[in-house]
Amino acid sequence: MVMKGRVIPRDFYRKDPLLVARRLLGQLLVRLWKDVRISGIIVEVEAYYGSEDPASRASRGGTLAKVMAGECGRALVYGVHGQWLLNVVAHEPGEVGAVLIRALEPLEGIEMMMENRRVRDIRSLTSGPGRLTRALVVDKSFNGKPLYTRNYGLWIEWGCEIRDELIVRSHRVGVREDLNEPMRLYVKDNPFVSRP
DNA sequence: CGCCAGATTGACT
DNA sequence: GTCAATCTGGCGG
Fold this sequence. Notes:
The chain is an alpha+beta fold.
């Protein structure tokens, strides 16, 4: 792709969360940590909406809802079950939404990730929302930070295009009450997709 | 402040 | 496959 290697601009995220989720597959999540580029290809995502979405934390109000209603392209980081989960705020103007990044295929800085995660098997490095934040050293301090600039050491850049035939759509993982529409997307047969 | 559910993980049968 | 440790944020007192 022509744009490969460039940071994805803010306007990319000003769309319906499911559409943004689809377009995020194949792009690169990059973390600059200790002068080392740690990155991975996004291979699994989930779309979340506002008050109409029973699985969304935004439907319960509070700080998270505010961030999800705020500026697109910013990180939304919050804790569940002792893990930090990384989302990108994404929605149409006046709406509420975000995309959860659930799994990466490790690309650069793999040794650094291994150090951060202390695992033997490379397949468990970044195959889960809590795992990838540990591997890339992402925590609450990134909450609200823009991901459309390199300024904060965490951003998303153009990677590769993934054909429609390679994309699987399913219901979201770990939610009590899901929407009728499946909101989870992942790359078919990719070994780094989290366990269903 | 205490309570508790939850967009999870890793260890174990 | 099962199961409990984990800890933040929302909410009630």
